Amino acid sequence: MSVPIRVLLVDDDPLVRAGLSMMLSGADTLSVVGEADDGAAGVEAVAELSPDVVLMDIRMPGLDGLAAIERLRERGHTGHVIVLTTFDADDQVVRALRAGAAGFLLKDTPPAEIVRAIERVAAGEPMLSPAIMQRLITQVTDNPAVERRARATTLLADLTEREHEVAVAVAEGKSNAEIGAELHLSVASVKAVVSRVLSKLDATNRVQVAMLVRDATETG
Q: How does pLDDT run across 137-162, given as a tens digit for each residue?
């Protein structure tokens, strides 16, 4: 039997944490290893517990989720952070993704989908649907469009033809299996190409790759 995915819950609402803990504990593939009620406590819990996946709320007193994600990145945390949001703060979600978050979940997401999202992120797969990914990407406002496009174009120019094909497929929200079927590659080969793409683009995760592809192709 495989080892359960270790999950840490970071949310200032005790009812939300209790509900998530109860729901996730019912999944054989997951194990809730700890909880924290703010960003600072979450950062310390990550250092102490080394979870595979962190569910991180954005709006919390003291150190908020965004600042916590940035602090984790500074400390070299290699786990996967999933942002919990009500989807009324798109700009904060995009900033979290740029800071290194693996994706996001709406707080009213059905339990089965939350479990699947955690499993997918733990495996290094993207967890954003193409429609949601495009909605988030279009909210980026931290750099002028022309500058973003120039930077993205320069980075993408260093990719080989195969790496560029994979980068575009990643931007479309496709899984490694779907990319392999489309490009006639094994999943292992796709993983290897994705790793090279991440390295060449100086990207932390697949969402950042998608943002660069979008920046390079947008005309607005």
A: 555 544 556 677 788 888 899 999 99
Tell me the two tokens of residue 166.
């994979």
Quote the pTM value.
0.65
Structure tokens that stand for 88 in this block = 């009324």
What does the DSSP 8-state code read for residue 200? Answer: H
Identify the DSSP state of 2. P
Q: Which of 17, 34, 4, 170 is nearest to 84 (CA)?
A: 17
- Return the CATH number at 28: 3.40.50.2300
Q: How many domains does the chain have?
A: 2
Strand partners, 103: 82
Quote the CA–CA distance of 39 and 67 in Å, as a whole number.
7
Domain extent for 95 = 5-127
Distance (Å, whole) CA 29 – CA 3: 8
For residue 142, what are the CA distances in angstroms to 16, 97, 102, 117, 198?
Answer: 31, 13, 19, 28, 21
